[in-house]
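During the no-cost extension, the postdoctoral fellow (Dr. R.K.) reprocessed legacy sequence entries with the updated structure-token encoder. One reprocessed record is reproduced below for audit purposes.
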Amino acid sequence: MANKQKHGLGSGLSALIPQDIDASKLGETLEKVHKLALDVVEPNKDQPRKHFDNTGLSELAESIKQHGVIQPIIVAPLKNGHYLLVAGERRLRAAKLAGEKTIPAIVRTLKELERLEMAMIENVQRVDLSPIEQAMGIEHLHQQFSMTYEMIAKKLGKALSTVNNIARLLQLPEEVIEALNKKIITEGHARAILSLKGYPEYQKILLKNCIGGWSVRQAERYVTSIKSGARNDSEARAKVAAETPETKTLSARLGTQVHIRRMAKGGRLEITFTSDEELARLIERIR
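Re-encoded structure tokens follow.
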């Protein structure tokens, strides 16, 4: 899951969801940083993140060689004198790659971590959070607390598909996230734009159109047109239109509104009626 750097988080959530856990977010009275030997820190086997970019790790290792580990990792004590890694596996791996012998760490008991986890879950359940704030909270639970999306879904009382869809919003381009945070576009618009992840140039065009007043349905039809092989924006835009010269002709003949609804393959021709009597009239006229 890609992480964004500027999400304009609300003050309520940003107090609990930083880019990574650090001492200031875990309690002012418990922020003592320890120097731990790397060989006493054990990675968490339940860490959901299994793959790490080698290039990114090498770059971080070079930075550590020059500046050291700036942000402490978070660990919990084990009975054998070792510590269980809770947050910061990427920093731990990079420190080993850099040849470091020790690493700064904040030691938390399992009870303290459980309290923080519960606070995080309660915060994500708040009704006043924006979609991006919810996504940040879910991804934080996933990355920093070694929770699978299925576990998060159960704790939040949401369907797994809902949790996955919310978390995927973090994959949106920065300008789309900003528009969503400012409520210039809706979450439905954002999901339509996200559907064009492999078409960045069309994502920008669609964002502009959504800001310009397109409905979510229009945005979805645009996505369908692009994915169905529209050769350019003009061709895709033409398929977005619910009203065409042909539907205007039909509307005039039938005396009611007629629209085209494009789908992945083909579409629907919608004829509007306001009563059973009008439906009977339309059927008779078509006959």
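The two ends are 56 Å apart (CA to CA). Residues 1-30 have pLDDT under 50 and may be disordered. The remaining legacy entries will be reprocessed before the final report is submitted.
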